[in-house]
Amino acid sequence: MTARAADRARYDRATAQLDAPVAIVDLDAFDANADDLVRRAGGKPIRVASKSVRCRALLERVLAREGFAGIMSFTLAESLWLARSGFDDVLLAYPSADRAGYAELAADPKLAAAVTVMVDDPAQLDLIDAARAGGGEVVRVCLELDTALKLLGGRVRIGARRSPLHSPAQVAEVARAVARRPGFQLVGIMAYEGHVAGVGDAVAGRPLRSRAVRLMQAAARRELAERRAAVVRAVREVVPDLEFVNGGGTGSVQHTAAEDAVTEIAAGSGLYVPRLFDNYTSFRGRPAALFALPVVRRPGVGVVTVLGGGYPASGAPGADRLPVPYLPEGLRYDPQEGAGEVQTPLLGPVADDLLIGDKVWFRHAKAGELCERFDTLRLVEGDAVTVTVPTYRGEGHTFL
Predict the structure, then answer these.
(1) Which of 2, 140, 315, 370 is deepest in the core (most CB within 10 A)?
(2) Burial class (CB in 10 A: 0-12, 13-18, 19+), 383
(3) Degrees (nearest 5) of the Cα angle 214, 218, 221?
(4) Rounded to an integer, what distance in angstroms lies between the CA atom of residue 396 and that of residue 69?
């Protein structure tokens, strides 16, 4: 029996009394992935990206482990909810226009001490001030650096379009704007190199593309390391007691951790290891988060139909955004139908071994987005579900 076949047998036994659709997290794999992230971080603390987890119980579990400290959140409403729930170090990774949230933040000493908001434009400070509604608490601020690699005098850009702050001078200018403005405290710098951390460099069947990605990423890492160090020096001239410099992502943990200027690493997807992280040479994780759909039809030889399945991930549309049929091995989508809104046909000789009611296990393309489809996660240890925990959705929250 292969390792994957053994996993399928375990998951089927663990969920034998549960009807599909059902989502699980294999805690042995989850914990092993956490250990691997800590190893790759080389002693620097890892801030957990909550958008890749979206489950309070699992955020608590990983933050209880040595090597993890703090949360990187994705909306202001989520940040405030987490802070009210007892998480005392929440970095909001994206600027917000949530005026009601800013009013609540500025009026509550506990929330203001726990939450740091993201800024890359003085106009965002104006919005926060206009939203205060009399709240006088100091708002903690982090500046985001644009990590994109620019070539040919800026005519070629590689990297996500996030912050407009690219040069040390630009970041320092906004740092000065924060420092001289009452009611704000600049405490950190963040730089997410998504073109390194979030792009696989070993795409199956595409050796030339994979080599090009590796060459691009090597150049991007060198350029960013120099520029990030210069940015930190420039900002420390304005704010000498800067608390943190955050960088990285699951795919670049060890490279970013090697930079002296970086004080902490961000990662989250590496805990669940969705399918997009199969194409990396720098690490190998264990799939920890899966969902099962039930076989409801057998339309013919070599085909079964499962209920549901159309759970695409965000990003540029393409086949790599779809969940992948994982267990049993050997199933594939019908190219004429793909993953359906209500039903999904799956092809392959192994389909003939599946019976009505059997489970087919899938892996989502990205990490936490799976939790937007399920109210609960069944936590599996060995061949048993040991506890059931709510996702954000299960607690009544869909933050985006």
Answers:
(1) 370
(2) middle
(3) 135
(4) 26
pLDDT of 200 reads: 67
The β-bridge relationship of strands 68-73 and 139-144 is unpaired
pLDDT tier for residue 197 given thresholds of 50, 70 and 90: low
Pairing of strands 90-92, 115-119: parallel
Give the dihedral sign, CA 277/248/256/151: positive
- 104-119 in b/e form (b: 16+ CB < 10 A) is bbbebeebbebbbbbb
Instruction: Write the DSSP assignment of 62-114 as a string of letters.
Output: HHTSTTEEEEEESSHHHHHHHHHTT---EEE-S----HHHHHHHHH-HHHHHH
Task: Record the tokens describing residue 391, joined without a space.
Answer: 């996702």
Evaluate whether 90 touches 116 at the Cβ level (below 8 Å): yes
> Which amino acid appears at position 49 of this protein?
A
* Alpha carbon distance 264, 43 (integer Å): 9
Structure tokens at 62: 């990983």
* pLDDT digit string, tens, across residues 262-298: 999 999 999 999 998 887 777 789 999 999 999 999 9
Give the DSSP H/E element, type plus range, for residue 36: helix 27-41
Whole-angstrom distance, CA of residue 85 vs CA of residue 18: 30
Angle, CA 80 vertex, CA 75 and CA 86 arms, to 5°: 125
Q: Looking at the predicted structure, is the pLDDT value of residue 343 above 90?
A: yes
In this prediction, residues 162-166 reach a mean pLDDT of 90
Find, among 164, 108, 104, the residue nearest to 128 by Cα: 104
CA dihedral 313, 309, 24, 252 (to 10 degrees): -20
Dihedral sign (CA 12, 14, 19, 24): negative
Tell me the whole-structure pTM to 2 decimals: 0.93
297 near 305, Cβ under 8 Å?
yes
pLDDT band at 214 (very low <50, low <70, confident <90, very high): confident
